[in-house]
Amino acid sequence: MLTRINSGLGKFSKAEEKIARYILNHAELIPNMTTKELAEKAEVSEASVIRFSKSIGIGSFKAFKIALAQELAVADKEYISDFSIVHKKDSPYDLFQKVVHVNKRAIELLASSLDKKELERAVNVLKEARRVLFFGVGGSAIAAVDGLYKFTKLGFQTEFNHDFHYMLSLIPYLSEKDVFVAISMSGKTKDVMELVRFAKKKGATVIAITNINKSPLYKQADIRLATPTVEKDFRSGSITSRMTQLTVIDTLYISLFNTIGKHVLEQYQEAREEVVKLRR
C-alpha cells in the first residue's frame, strides 16, 4: 500500500497528494483514524479522503485502513526507536500515538514468541526457588528492578544490583535450589553472560528473558522466555524491548501470585496498612 501511494505522488490531485504525504509520514496512525480525523490532519475534505481510497484501487477508507494495518503488522519498521525519528518533526501527541502503537504491537508479537511450555517451566521452578537473582544492564535493568520489587512482595529472597561486582559476590552462595533470571535484549551483554556462566557452574537454574534470536544467552539458558525482536542494537533507547520484558516479569509475578498468593495475603495486608499510615 505505501509503495503504491509513494509511486503515485505525481499523479494525485492536490488534495489527494496532501492525504498521501500525511499517510506516508504517519502510516502507523492511520488504522485508528476516522475519515474525519484524517481529513482534518491532511487539511482536506472528507470527500477527498474517500476519493483518495478509490484512486489507489481500494473501495472504501475502511478497507484501506484494514489493508494498511495488515501491511504494517508484517513490515520491519521502527517508527520511534531508531534514529530516523530526527527526520520527522512530529508533535508530542503524534509521538504519543506512535509510542502507543509500537508498544501495543510489541506486546502482540510477544504472544507469538513466548513458548507456553517454557513459561510453565519457569513458573514451576520459581515457585520452588530458595533464592531468586535478577540481572540486566542498561534498559534491561529496569525489568530486573521490577522483578526485584514484585518477587520481594511475594516473600522471595530476591536480589538485584546495578553493580556487577556486587552481583558476582552473590553467585558463590547459589545452589541448585536457586534461580538466576538474566535479562538482555541482545543476549550478548558481557556482564550478563559472565554471571550466567558462574551461576550455571554453581548449579542454579538460569531463566533468560531475551530476544528469540539464538543468541549466546538464549543458548546457555536452562529456560528461555523469548521476546520478539522489535528493536535493533543501535537505537535511540530501549522502548518496545523494555515493554516486552516488563510484560514477561508481570506474567511471572501474576502466575506465582495465582499459585501462592493465599499464603502471603496477610503480609500483603500488613504492608498495605503501613503504607496507608504514611499518607497525609
UniProtKB/TrEMBL annotation:
Q: Where is the signal peptide?
A: none
The HTH rpiR-type domain sits at 1-75
Q: Is Transcription regulation one of the keywords?
A: yes
Q: Which UniProt keywords apply?
A: DNA-binding, Transcription, Transcription regulation
PANTHER family on file: GLUCOKINASE, HTH-TYPE TRANSCRIPTIONAL REGULATOR HEXR-RELATED
Q: Where is the SIS domain?
A: 122-262
Q: Which organism is it from?
A: Kroppenstedtia guangzhouensis
The record ties this protein, via PROSITE patterns, to: HTH_RPIR (PS51071), SIS (PS51464)
User: Which InterPro entries does its entry note?
Assistant: Homeodomain-like_sf (IPR009057), HTH_RpiR (IPR000281), RpiR-like (IPR047640), RpiR-like_SIS (IPR035472), SIS_dom (IPR001347), SIS_dom_sf (IPR046348), WH-like_DNA-bd_sf (IPR036388)
Domain of life, per UniProt, equals Bacteria
Q: Name one Pfam family in it.
A: HTH_6
Name of the protein in its database record: RpiR family transcriptional regulator
